[in-house]
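Side project, low priority. Logging it here so it doesn't get lost.
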Amino acid sequence: MPPSRRREETSLKLSRVAAEDSLEQQLFFGLRRIAQGVEVDSRRLAKQHNVTGPQLIALCAVVHLGPTTATDVSQRVYLSPSTVVGIFDRLEAKGLMKRERDRQDRRIVFVTPTDAGRELVAQAPHPLFASLRELLKGLNKADQKAVGVAVDRLAQIIGEPTVE
């Protein structure tokens, strides 16, 4: 059976199961599928570009923010500062970013991307962005906005936890 046919059959089965589930179950299993997709994408990034999804997301934030701190990046990417520091350790070891202490306040450490880090951000696909772009292309502007509002609201309800 061709892969496209298998996907269609799987999608139909999931639709039937979802119709029988409560809203809570639908949301839970939908979030589970999203989490699994993020994990698969992270493994693909690690294999192709030698960085994980969280590492690329943090590096993208560093490129976007310019000289910045672990605290600023942690707030932007919804990870704890200690997790971001560990990610920075790995990115620095790979030569993708560098750290420099502030000259006036030596307690403050700024991070900046290296040329290799900027190049990686420019060429590596952002985690799941291509898939999301394709999905959203099929929706009109009102539906696109509704999806964005719904996802944002769901994140607020769940509490936007940081990973420790």
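Brief comment: The domain at 50-125 is CATH 1.10.10.10 (Arc Repressor Mutant, subunit A).
Revisit when time allows.
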